[in-house]
Amino acid sequence: MPFTHEETNELRLMLLRIVRSIRANYVGSVSPSQIGVLVVLVTHGPSTIGQIAEYERVQPPSASRTVAALEKAGLVERTPDAQDRRSVRISLSPLGEQYLEEMKQVGTSWLTGRLGGLDDADRDAIRAALPALARLVADDV
After folding, report:
1. Among positive and negative, which fits the CA dihedral 74, 29, 68, 83?
2. Three-state secondary structure along 47-110?
3. pLDDT 10s digits, 13-29
C-alpha cells in the first residue's frame, strides 16, 4: 500500500528532526551546508567545486563560498588536479577528518542513548526498517 501524503510528510519531518538533533548535540561552528560539503568529500573523495555543487544541489558560487569558509577554518585543502592543471580538487584536511570523526562519535553516542530509551518492540521496528531506508536513499549518495 502506498504512503499517504500525510505519512510521507510525517516521515520527512521525523528524519529532519533526527538529523537536526544529532547535529545539535555536537558543539561546533560549522554550518549545516559546510557539514554537507565535508560529507561529500568523505563520500566521493577529492572533488572539484563543480562536483561539490552538483552533489549538494547548489550553484557553483555557493559551493565556492562554502569551500572558502571551510578552507579558512583549516578543514579542507585545495590541490591542483593531476589531469587538468587549470582545476583544483578539494579534499579533507587532517583537521577536517578529525572534526568529522568527533562529530560522528558525538552523534552516535546521542543516538545510542535515544535508542536505548525505547522498548524492544520499537527498537525491533527500527532495525527492520533499516534495509528499506537504505534503499530509499541509495541513489542519492
Report:
1. positive
2. ECHHHHHHHHCCCHHHHHHHHHHHHHCCCEEEEECCCCCCCEEEEECHHHHHHHHHHHHHHHHH
3. 999 999 888 877 776 78
Element holding 23 (H helix, E strand) = helix 5-24
| Other Cβ atoms closer than 10 A to 97 | 15
The confidence band for 137, taking pLDDT boundaries of 50, 70 and 90, is: confident
Q: Is the pTM of this model over 0.70?
A: yes
Three cell numbers written together for 14: 521525523
| Residue 65 burial (CB count, 10 A) | 14
